[in-house]
Write a structure and sequence with these properties.
The protein has two helices and nine strands, in the order αβαββββββββ. 28% of the residues are buried.
């Protein structure tokens, strides 16, 4: 748990330093309900935040992401690395509240197996800005995950923390 708190604090501090201009920035979410984790989960695991870079376009944003999960089962451990990208289009906006919809695509690789999982997820979400530099949002995803002959469909929710400069 202390490890996760350190990662969250470091992500927050780094996101404020590396954002290029107002509107671009970094964010993170915890993916405990991820379809990739449900598809590949083999035991108890440590879930670290998935980190997003936010690149804003005129009425949309592109969010590349990177996630890492550590899993242990019967004394053996392995890890899952996830890379993805999302395209989110703004639906409504006010000074401090906005909604969006779009899609996310991700690919996950497991460290000790020759296994790759792909996830395609239509999403809708909302975001509340506390200032020009910080917002909290929620996102609902309809996940479709594929790995070999196994497919999974589920709905997951994600709490986002985004930092802008």
């Amino acid at each position: 748990m202390k490890y996760m708190v350190k990662i969250v604090i470091m992500t927050c501090l780094l996101s404020l330093n590396f954002a290029q201009e107002k509107g671009n920035g970094f964010g993170f979410t915890f993916n405990g309900g991820s379809s990739i984790m449900n598809l590949m989960m083999m035991g108890e695991g440590t879930i670290t935040p998935t980190v997003y870079y936010i690149y804003n376009l005129s009425n949309a944003s592109i969010e590349p992401s990177l996630g890492y999960y550590s899993i242990s089962n019967d004394g053996e451990s392995s890890s899952i690395t996830t890379v993805g990208v999302g395209y989110l289009k703004n639906r409504t906006e006010s000074d401090s509240f906005g909604t969006y919809w779009g899609g996310r695509f991700s690919m996950s690789m497991i460290s000790d197996a020759d296994d790759t999982a792909i996830s395609i997820s239509p999403v809708c979400g909302a975001e509340y800005s506390f200032s020009n530099n910080f917002s909290v949002g929620g996102e609902t995803r309809f996940n479709y995950g594929m790995s070999g002959d196994t497919n999974i469909m589920n709905i997951s929710t994600h709490l986002f923390f985004r930092f802008y400069k």
